[in-house]
């Protein structure tokens, strides 16, 4: 089965967490699910470099990548991922973000995180934030 190494940013600002909703995808089980921004690590990148690059590419959002929160392994029906989540904060010069690739976005309190329909791999990431 194809395997991806993925990084995800738990961006925290004013006590809220940035959550992004996917649009329609190739697979029904990831379509319209909520996730943390990020993506696949490319050859030669550190996880932190990959994360900063992904947030610039998909959101034009400069973030400071901080502590590693958790690494989760998840097998979807068609591929598997190892995903490491890092706590991130917007850089001082960040002036909001653009939504280039996602269907929706939301700043959520801890309580509100529980109400979203998360991608299956994210459930264990969300759990440690509660
Ligand atoms: N970015 C991100 N991807 C996640 C999360 N949870 C999760 O299951 N994934 C899965 O991990 C994979 C990450 O790929 P991606 O599509 O975001 O990566 P990418 O930007 O490099 O995509 P590309 O291959 O289209 O260039 C996707 O299959 C996505 O569904 C999450 O919280 N954040």
In short:
With 130 residues, this protein is of the alpha+beta class. It has three helices and seven strands.
Task: Describe the protein in words.
The chain is α+β, with helices and mostly antiparallel strands. It has a single domain (2-129), classed as Nucleoside Triphosphate Pyrophosphohydrolase (Alpha-Beta Complex), CATH 3.90.79.10. The protein is 18% helix and 41% strand. It is built from three helices and seven strands. Strands 1, 2, 3, 4, 5, 6 and 7 form a seven-stranded mixed β-sheet that branches. Strand 5 (63-75) and strand 6 form a beta hairpin. The longest helix has 13 residues, at 47-59. The model has no long low-confidence stretch (mean pLDDT 97). Residues 4, 6, 8, 30, 35-36, 38-40, 54, 81, 83, 119, 121-122 line the site of 8-OXO-guanosine-5'-triphosphate (8GT). Residues 4, 6, 8, 30, 35-36, 38-40, 54, 81, 83, 119, 121-122 line the site of 8-OXO-guanosine-5'-triphosphate.
